[in-house]
Amino acid sequence: MLGIPLSEAPTIVTAPIRPAGSHVLAAQGIDKSYVVKGRPNIVFACFDFAVESGSFISIVGPSGCGKSTLLKLLAGLDAPDEGTIRFKEKTVTAPPRGVVYVFQQYSKSIFPWRTVAENVAFGLEHQRDLDRASRRERCREFIRLVGLEGYEDYYPSQLSGGMQQRVAIARALVCKPDVLMMDEPFSAVDALTRTTLQQLMLNIWQSLRVTVVFVTHDVDEAVYLSGRVVSLSRAPARVVDDVRVMLPYPRDPVKTRGDARYIAARERLLSRILAAETDHADGSAA
Amino acid sequence: MKARWPGFALVVFVLLVWQIATVGGWADSVSLPPVTAVVMSWWTDLASGSIPAQLVPSLRRITIGLGLAIAIGMPLGMLMGVNRLAYRILEPLTELLRPIPSAAYIPVAILFLGLGDQMKLFVIVLASVFPILLNTYMGVTGIDPVLIDTGRTLGTPRFSILYKIVFPASLPSILTGIRISLGIAFIVSVTSEMIAGNNGLGYFIIDRQQTFHVSEVFAGILTLGVMGYAMNLVFLQIERYLLRWRGTTVRA
User: Fold this and answer.
1) CA-CA distance, B41 to A62, in Å (whole number)?
2) pLDDT at A5
3) How far is A72 from chain B (nearest CA, A)?
4) What single DSSP character describes residue B155?
């Protein structure tokens, strides 16, 4: 079925991922389970994961596989039962300054009682080393970066969904994080808005050199945006596939999607995901 | 304005029926004076200052009582909302005290605090603290966890999350509680003035009833109606200002 046999796909290099020095963020030996209706649901068992500094990495997988849980653990918003999370070699026990999470439900994450400018300023208000003027200047800079100039005094209720998510992105970036965690950030907007937001994210990633960990269920989106795509199985999650996407940046919404390397990476990921799903279905039928 | 005229027409109609019934002799004009007589004594009592003199202590009592109820109920409700232990300690007591009709406290309050302002304020606060406390608690527990996590990931210290996120996010619910308590404070202050008063509109009404100035009794009731309406109007303006961010217009 596939154009290129998996083993010979020339543009893809897979390597075992182990936490190492160049990793800005790493999870080691993570156990995590939730109790659902009285029964423990194991999401992670002895799970390892690492994010290279400066990379744009996507995590894909079926819904409920633990993608968001992994992201929350890495961001310090949730604690593992066992194992450690390390950010810049320091063990994470609370959300570290330097890792900021952008939520899927932007309408729930935005502060509706604050204007656009006040929302963006939120993360800077408790940074004592910044004076009022430089704070305001930095907010203006990031509002401009996400293309919301002129909307500073609007309340979120006056903005479209795509614009609200831009506010959330600017509010995260203004803190100048090392790592931006994005949990299906564009899944709730229309297709055209999604394309513009994807382009915006790529521009931001390239100009700010921020590390991005991007969770999505959309393989196309993952391949298009990332330098590395990690595919997770259903819970308890294991890495089904770990693909390096050797496509150059900047990427073009039309041309990149026609590139043989894009198609190859996409095909490989999809076929592995489908194979894992079939295994899963067989397993539960037996 | 156009949509309101049927409502006003009904008011006029009721007053007209009242007037005709009393003037025509179908109703006992001693216990139900004609509208014109009520309006005339209202005007006289307003001009002579005898109603304004009673209005001020009532308003003062309601304002202070409600202010104290907010100062007690809001922090307690927030505490119960964010702290499980505080909730477990305070919940049984509030559930026990809440359903007791506030007028039932008045005799006991008189025994302990006498007939003065202290007693009245105590009863007003006791009656109006629970709606504020409960609505604050419900507002706090109803906050989407995403909002709190947003604060955490943006590096907000714990206490700042409380006043920068939890408080504004539960403000609509808190204001609902305050509005309910405003009505309760109003009722309880008038009741307490009727039972043990030497000033206030409740006292005015009882005093005029006992001296058979029936049209003045109605003038007092009319004043209460106008006062309640005005207080609600002021409150709605404050609420609209505080919740001005809750727009409905959406721009694509």
Assistant:
1) 78
2) 43
3) 10
4) T
Integer CA distances (angstroms), B126 to A172, B9, B98, in order: 45, 39, 9
Query: Are B37 and B205 a contacting pair, CB within 8 Å?
Result: no
**What is the mean pLDDT of the segment spanning A35-53?**
89
Taking the domains of chain A in order of start, what are their residue ranges?
6-14+53-77+92-98+177-285, 112-176
Structure tokens at B106: 């008045």
Q: Token pair of A107, please?
A: 């309408």
| Alpha-carbon torsion, ordered B192, B195, B198, B203, to 10 deg | 80
B160, closest residue in chain A (CA to CA): A126
Expressed in percent and rounded to 5, the helix, strand and coil fractions of chain B are 80, 0, 20
Distance between A113 CA and the closest CA of chain B, angstroms = 5
Question: In angstroms, rounded to a whole number, what is the distance separating the alpha carbons of residues A47 and A71?
Answer: 13
φ and ψ of A191, to 5 deg: -60, -45
Interface test with A, best of B150, B159, B167, B250 (most A CBs within 10 A): B150
Nearest to A155 among B151, B247, B252 (CB): B247
- What is the ipTM, given to two decimal places? 0.87
CA contacts within 13 A on the Cβ side of A56: 25
Amino acid at B203: Y
- The strand order across the sheet containing A179-183 reads A99-102, A179-183, A211-215, A56-60, A228-232, A239-244
Q: Which residue has the tokens 């996507």?
A: A58
- Shortest Cα–Cα distance, A121 to chain B (Å): 10
**Spatial separation of the C-alpha atoms in residues A160 and A165, rounded to whole Å:** 9
d(CA A23, CA A221): 24
pLDDT grade for B87, boundaries at 50, 70 and 90: very high
| Arithmetic mean of pLDDT, A46-62 | 93
User: B144, B147, B149, B154: best mutation site toward chain A, by most A Cβ within 10 Å?
Assistant: B154
Q: Do B155 and A95 touch (CB under 8 A)?
A: yes
Contacts A72 to B, Cβ<8 Å: 149
B53-242: which CATH topology?
MetI-like fold (1.10.3720)
CB contact under 8 A, A157 and B245: yes
The answer to whether residue B240 neighbours chain A at the CB level (below 8 Å) is no
Which pair of structure tokens corresponds to residue B162?
């409380």
The domain made up of A6-14+53-77+92-98+177-285 has a fold known as Rossmann fold (3.40.50)
Sheet holding A39-52, edge to edge: A39-52, A23-36, A82-87, A90-91
Partner-chain residue, chosen from A100, A113, A172, that has the shortest CB–CB distance to B245: A113
Residue B40, C-beta contacts closer than 8 angstroms, at least 6 positions apart: B215
The residue whose two tokens read 């039928």 is A285
- pLDDT tens profile B138-153: 999 999 999 999 999 9
- Taking phi over 0 as left and psi of -120 to 50 as alpha, with beta for the rest, A83 belongs to left
Q: What is the pTM of this model?
A: 0.85
